[in-house]
Amino acid sequence: MNLLDKNDALSLARLRDVLIRLEDTIIFALIERAQFKLNAYTYQPDVYDYDDGYKGSFLGYFLHEMEKVHSRVRRYTSPDEYPFTQPLPTPILPALDFPPTLHPNSINVNVAIMERYLQDIVPKICPAGDDLNYGSSATRDVECLQALSKRIHYGKFIAEAKFMDPTQQATYIRLIQAKDREGIMALLTNRTVEAALLRRLRRKAMIYGHDITEGGDIVLDQETQDKKISPDVVVDLYERFVIPLTKEVEVDYLLQRLNNWDGPVTIKTS
Ligand SMILES: C=C(O[C@@H]1C=C(C(=O)O)C=C[C@H]1O)C(=O)O
């Protein structure tokens, strides 16, 4: 996906390909985190003293330090990147000239992502207990959180692509003007895509969660599988968290889509 090319960035098929690729990123990030025990100290506030007077958890401290460095190299000027922490420094690299693909908005659901990740995901993928690997746990947590955040905020691009569909735009405008959240949710929901995604996800988690012999055969060993990642947990994570939150982002984005909008433009029917 080339976000510097507006047509590419608003192709629904291309956007869905990005979400498929992010399935791999997310599954492997979860497998990496699941190597370590829960390590609750990573998430408890004020366990350590921090050099800059920071008050919070070790994960929160590490995440903010990481996001400050990434901000310096302009990560968060990209329309598909959203930080968890503030304040962040200005970039040292000059801004890239991204086309105005998304309608201006301030939607950031990372607080909800962090909450669900800590309460609902880490306890399900990691063995209980403490193996002292707090640094390793936090680095894997950041990988998981950044991948989940990117995937869920892609809902903005998906929503924009649906809004720019000439066969749908008038209906979206009517529902947005009526502030009809349920109507918008129903119109943007695609059960066929969701069902295919969950079937594919289960297969991927099953295959990625197994070892492959030198001869290229999958070692179907339940113990290995459970140690790496449970396909049920991955499917449940998407069904109850990733997909619903992506759709909430789509609805939130569409509800503000008509703000300061100069009306229907000539739509390229490519
Ligand atoms: C992302 C889309 O919008 C919705 C959300 C989906 C998801 O989060 O996987 C899948 C289908 C739709 O219900 C899409 O239409 O592809």
Automatic annotation (TrEMBL):
Pfam families: CM_2 (PF01817). The keyword Nucleus does not apply. It comes from the Eukaryota. GO terms for cellular component: cytoplasm. Keywords: Amino-acid biosynthesis, Aromatic amino acid biosynthesis, Cytoplasm, Isomerase, Phenylalanine biosynthesis, Tyrosine biosynthesis. It is found in: Cytoplasm. This is Chorismate mutase. It comes from Podila minutissima. The lineage of its organism: Eukaryota, Fungi, Fungi incertae sedis, Mucoromycota, Mortierellomycotina.
